[in-house]
């Protein structure tokens, strides 16, 4: 069946969607929770990568996606000698992931084997990758935790990837943790997990994130001071926005009119 592009379009290639110069820096200060809410407002509800968390506490990550797709391994295609092949897709992905990008691996949400180990992850760090996301396992997890490059995975898993995963495609659309990831989508990670930001929305969400974070900081102070949430969050009481404006002036050191 021929698919009509006007009904079911694929995203444009990343090269056709340039980002504003400050978009990644703006998103660097945003939380995944904020981005999840902003995407929800735009009708996007499946952009959270399920079952994936950082190996190290305090990890934060931002960068365009570079993808690696695995299918199920099979005994005749995945002997240990497969790693000797110079064009093995897993190894090629490690050596071609662009600087500043996040390597995102599709392991079909199967963490019974590793998708990479500390040696390959260290190589990615040395090459300047912004991070790694996998819905599979990671072996040599202690070594992976010691990296400065953030690693987000389903869990530690000792078996080599060849026991369950056959690396087959690089820099193609994938599904990771139930979320679609297209090459060049923006990947944001923190302690709550990983969000996939469709590239064509990145500039818009970057501009909206900081004001939302600022308002939520104000709300948190109000709640700590004993204010009830009804009328405050969301700000359905007009007085809330008046107090917010006064709070903003105080935070920015601006004179407050009496």
Automatic annotation (TrEMBL):
InterPro entries: RraA/RraA-like (IPR005493), RraA/RraA-like_sf (IPR036704). The keyword tRNA processing does not apply. It comes from the Bacteria. Mg(2+) binds at residue 140. GO terms for molecular function: metal ion binding. Substrate binds at residues 117-120, 139. Pfam families: RraA-like. Its cofactor is Mg(2+). Keywords: Magnesium, Metal-binding. Signal peptide: none annotated. This is Ribonuclease activity regulator RraA. It comes from Alloyangia sp. H15.
């Amino acid at each position: 069946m021929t698919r009509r592009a006007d009904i079911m379009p694929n995203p444009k290639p990343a090269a056709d969607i340039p980002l504003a110069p400050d978009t990644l820096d703006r998103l660097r200060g945003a939380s995944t929770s904020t981005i999840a809410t902003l995407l929800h407002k735009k009708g996007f509800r499946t952009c959270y990568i399920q079952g994936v968390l950082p190996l190290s506490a305090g990890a934060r990550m931002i960068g365009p996606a570079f993808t690696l797709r695995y299918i199920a391994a099979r005994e005749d295609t995945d002997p240990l000698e497969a790693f000797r092949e110079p064009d093995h897709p897993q190894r090629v992905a490690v050596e071609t992931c662009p600087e500043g990008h996040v390597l995102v691996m599709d392991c079909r949400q199967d963490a019974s084997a590793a998708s990479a180990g500390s040696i390959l992850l260290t190589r990615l760090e040395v090459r300047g990758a912004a991070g790694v996301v996998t819905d599979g396992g990671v072996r040599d997890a202690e070594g992976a935790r010691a990296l400065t490059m953030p690693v987000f995975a389903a869990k530690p898993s000792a078996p080599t990837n060849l026991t369950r995963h056959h690396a087959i495609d690089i820099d193609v659309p994938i599904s990771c943790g139930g979320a679609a990831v297209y090459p060049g989508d923006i990947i944001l990670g923190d302690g709550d997990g990983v969000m996939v930001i469709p590239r064509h929305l990145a500039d818009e969400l970057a501009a909206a994130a900081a004001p939302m974070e600022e308002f939520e900081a104000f709300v948190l102070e109000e709640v700590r001071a004993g204010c009830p949430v009804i009328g405050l969050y969301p700000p359905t009481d007009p007085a809330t926005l008046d107090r917010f404006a006064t709070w903003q002036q105080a935070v920015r050191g601006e004179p407050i009119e009496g």
